[in-house]
Amino acid sequence: MSKYKNLVYEVTFGGGLLARGFWLYVWEITRPNGAKLYYVGRTGDSSSINAQSPFSRMGQHLGFNKRANALRRLLIGHGVGANVETCSFRLVAYGPILEEAHDARQHSSRRDIVASLEKALADAMYQSGHDIINTVHCKKPLDASLFADVRTAFATSFPKLQGSENYAGGAL
After folding, report:
1. Does a structural domain hold residue 31?
2. Burial letters for 45-69: b for 16+ Cβ neighbours within 10 Å, e otherwise?
3. Taking 60 as the threshold, does the pLDDT of residue 86 lie above it?
4. Phi and psi, residue 17, nearest 5°
5. Most buried of the four, 62, 70, 111, 163, by CB within 10 Å?
6. Structural domain tally of the chain?
7. Chain segment 24-45, per-residue pLDDT in tens
8. How far is 147 from 90, CA to CA, in rounded Å?
């Protein structure tokens, strides 16, 4: 008999989640006791000129490959222990904000733009009372107009962000 409470699971998503490009996303993790944790991320990193879809990142984040499972490792480090499978997960993704690049220079430029948005979103989520489990580092300049769109989009799923419309970036 399985140690997991439910044996049938269902995942439903719009096909747009499969699009490659530069996205931002927020994981909302609900622990068995009801406490919520949050992880802010993006697609498009330094390892290649490819920018995957959030759908592609979902399995990597929670898998067992130590080079790609940042969310699993952080959850284990935040007291969930080996019981990651007892949590509930919700992924909210916004994008693609920018299309996938065609060369390394274009990729770096787009990656930096989205990295600054990721940092600002993580900071705004933290400042609005969300328990963020990852630290986002970025010193690239923030496009405040683009961030206003990002904040508005995520505020539909995370209403406490609505009070952060004047947020212009900054360190935690």
Report:
1. yes
2. eeeebebbbbbebbeebbeeeeebb
3. yes
4. -65, -15
5. 111
6. 1
7. 999 999 998 999 999 999 998 8
8. 22
Q: How confident is the model at residue 164 (pLDDT cuts 50, 70, 90)?
A: low
pLDDT for 166 beyond 60: no
pTM: 0.89
Residue 93: beta bridge partners? 25
Whether 138 contacts 115, CB under 8 Å: yes
Residue type, 9: Y
**β partners of residue 41:** 25
For 38-90, the DSSP string reads: EEEEES--SS-S----HHHHHHHHHSS-TTT-HHHHHHIIIIITT-GGGSEEE
Asked if residue 128 belongs to a domain, the reply is yes
Q: Please, how many CA atoms are within 13 Å of residue 94, restricted to the half-sphere of its CB? A: 23
Alpha-carbon span 108 to 6, nearest angstrom:
43
- Residue 36 pairs in a beta bridge with 30
Q: Tell me, yes or no, whether 7 lies in a domain.
A: no
Neighbours of 28 (CB within 10 A): 16
Instruction: Report, in angstroms and rounded to the nearest whole number, the Rg of the chain calculated over CA atoms.
Output: 16
The whole domain housing 114 covers: 21-159
Q: Is residue 166 part of a domain?
A: no
Beta bridge pairs of residue 88: 30
For residue 17, what are the contacts with CB-CB under 8 A and spacing of at least 6?
53, 54, 55, 93
